[in-house]
Amino acid sequence: MPPTYRNYIDGKWIPSTSCHVIRDLNPADFRDCLGEFPESGPDEISQAVRAAHRAFASWRRVPAPARGEFVARWGELIARDEEALARLITMENGKTLQESKSEVKEAFDFARFMSAQARLIEGSTFPSQHERRLLMTLRQPVGVTALITPWNFPILIPCWKLFPALICGNTVILKPAEECPLAAHRLVELAAEAGLAPGVVNLIHGSGEGTGRTLVKHPGVALVSFTGSTETGRRIAQECALSLKRHVLELGGKNAQIVLADADLTEAVEGAVVGAYKTTGQRCTATSRIIVEQTVAGSFSERFLERTKQIRVGNGLDANVDMGPLVSESRRKRVHAYVEAGRREGAHLLLGGYFYESEPLAQGAFYPPTVFDSVKPGMAIAREEIFGPVICLMEAEDLEAALLDLNNNPYGLSASVYTSNMHTALEAVERIEAGLVYINSPTTGSELHMPFGGVKATGDGHREAGRYGLNIFSEWKSAYINYGRRVSRVELQTPA
Ligand code: UN1
């Protein structure tokens, strides 16, 4: 029997009252159920919100450096358990062990970075237009925050939100994706071990449609931070608009790599392989379109296909595997539906695009690296986020045409350009409509101290990672402090 997991509310692991259960399956082998998680209902969500409110009153008064010390202790426990956490991510999400290790490392590196930032939650001072008056700004916590996180980085993305939320003095309700709840469970167990005060971080399991939606609507939640699909993000924004709740949305991408004729083709091919197939194409930053300058399109495509054929698909725990399964059967069906749509619309399938029929791959959500060419900008596979190992090869006459194709898309998260010309590179950096631009490296691989996020339908203008979480998780207060003895004198002065 798989173990049954509980919610974490007010410092206690509490069995859910719900009779709906979510089974956490290993995507490399559906026979392996890692645990059963509750579909939490309104009562337990309210209980968690009440606990977070009570905790907020004291947590906001804890000096920020002490809040930072807590994040540092939590990070050190994540580092201590690096191996075990990485194995767990691979078993639950499917990505290779090496990728899982990089994810865990980025999580504890971010804890180290963020814990130091707790001493730098700075405001400013300004000269006043009145005498003997000090003007200053300070950052204040927002309150109870709901963090709704995806399954593609089940440790890292919760940390991107948790650590800045906490150092700024907020309390938290974490609702992890139902596909990877065990990673969040372990993460919160480590928070408890690090000595977290009850109610500061609460963990509520359940689906997005059910538990997530109820949490977003709860009047006691002051801010919702969400990473996931644009479709869900839109619904969250609509819901939050009704009560003017703060919301922060990190949504889809349809990232492109441009390869120009003067590029180092070997590097461009390697970059494309990393961008396309790491995490089985399930990164917001994954490369999905490759736009190649016509004169080198034939040779690029030949070399890219050759490299793609070498990708070894299998269980991510096996060190000889390059690409694990998709996260679930429903994701596999969705990816395949896009591939079918591509075929129907007249794109030419060069590789992949099928389900494995023999063991062991038939037991999991495996999908082969899939490549289309003759893809036209209007096709669904060229416009929509597929979130799988599916590549659209496109041709462009020159840089101008390539930029036009790249920007002609509702999303704007990440983009990459391979060229050996500095002028071209800088021109592209300037003109690409995306939050992240890479020159001569893949569309993936952001560094934790840089702002992360995108333009257009990729989000709502916020940036995560780096110090940028401080802007999300605090509100400015402007303070006017008169220190002259006779306040009225100040008031008599103009302007009003
Ligand atoms: C995501 O896909 O949601 O740049 C995050 C990258 C990683 C982060 C991806 N550092 O690919």
What would the keywords be for this entry?
Aldehyde Dehydrogenase, Chain A, domain 2, 496 residues, 16 helices, alpha/beta, 5-stranded parallel sheet, single chain, Aldehyde Dehydrogenase, Chain A, domain 1, 7-stranded mixed sheet, 21 strands, 2 domains, binds 2-aminohexanedioic acid
Please write out the topology.
Layout: E1 7-9, E2 12-14, E3 21-26, E4 29-38, H1 42-59, H2 64-80, H3 82-93, H4 97-117, E5 125-127, E6 133-141, E7 144-149, H5 156-167, E8 171-176, H6 181-193, E9 201-203, H7 208-217, E10 223-227, H8 230-243, E11 246-250, E12 255-259, H9 265-277, E13 287-293, H10 294-309, H11 329-344, E14 348-351, E15 370-373, H12 380-383, E16 390-396, H13 399-407, E17 411-412, E18 414-418, H14 422-431, E19 436-439, E20 455-456, H15 469-472, E21 474-482, H16 487-492
Helix pairs in contact: 2-4, 2-6, 3-4, 3-6, 4-5, 9-10
What would you say about this model in short?
With 496 residues, this protein is an alpha/beta fold. It contains 16 helices and 21 strands. It binds 2-aminohexanedioic acid (UN1).
